[in-house]
Every structure is written in structure tokens, then in C-alpha cells.
Amino acid sequence: MNGHPTAGVPILRLGDVLVSGLLNELDDKSALAFTEELTETIVASGARGVLIDISRLELVDSFVARMLMDLSTTARLLGARVIVAGMRPPVAITLVELGIELAGVETALSAEQGLTALGWHKGVPPRERAEP
């Protein structure tokens, strides 16, 4: 892979929440570059929450599982809450069968549920929902 290794993994900012996703073609080098870029973006943006959508992943191996655990721990140390969303049932079953617990990783069934848990609701940022 030439150039910027995370070029296929955009990190979007929605207020104080970062949103990203992992692609099925994620290799070890790209995973490490993504982790580094995301942690730098957390610090630079002052993000308080991160949503990582893994709905496109058809399998999660022990390396990706460890990356998600380490990323969650690192983000917490930087003051951000991480939610991993969109895990497919076969991925969850495989993780259980392999004895991988994803310790410390908060999950949500969908990106929408993950964003809601981070304080977002269907197109209405939290600050605009407050009653006068």
C-alpha cells in the first residue's frame, strides 16, 4: 500500500464526536496507522466520543480485536469514550469461540445507536435539544 495508509478510512468530526469505520481489507500496517491517526485526531479536536463502525468487517482476528481494545483504552486515557458499532452476528460468534472478550470495548448494534449513546439523536445535536 503506497501513500497514506488510512486513505480509505476517513475520520469525520460531528461536533465533539469522531466517526469512523473499519474496512474489510484492513491489514496490520493500516490498522496501526489508523490507530495512530485516530488518537492524534482525538487530541487535536478535543473529541469526547468516538464511534467506530465495523459493520463492513466480515471477520475480526485477534490482531484487530487487540487493536480495538488498545484504541478504547488509549481514547479513555485521552478523555474520549469509544463505541464500536455494527458488529455482525458471525463476527460476535467467532470472537466468543476464540475466547476473545474485547475487554473494555463498549459496543452498540448500529452506528445510530452508538451515536445516540454518545449524545446524538437523528440529526439534532445535543446542545439544540435542551429546553429553554
From TrEMBL:
Gene3D superfamilies the record matches: STAS domain
InterPro entries the record matches: Bact_StressResp_Reg, STAS_dom, STAS_dom_sf
Give the CDD domains listed for this entry: STAS_RsbR_RsbS_like
In Pfam terms, one family for this protein is STAS
Where the record annotates domain STAS, the positions are 7-118
What is the name listed in the Swiss-Prot or TrEMBL entry for this protein? RsbT antagonist protein RsbS
The species is Streptomyces spectabilis
Q: What is the lineage of its organism?
A: Bacteria, Bacillati, Actinomycetota, Actinomycetes, Kitasatosporales
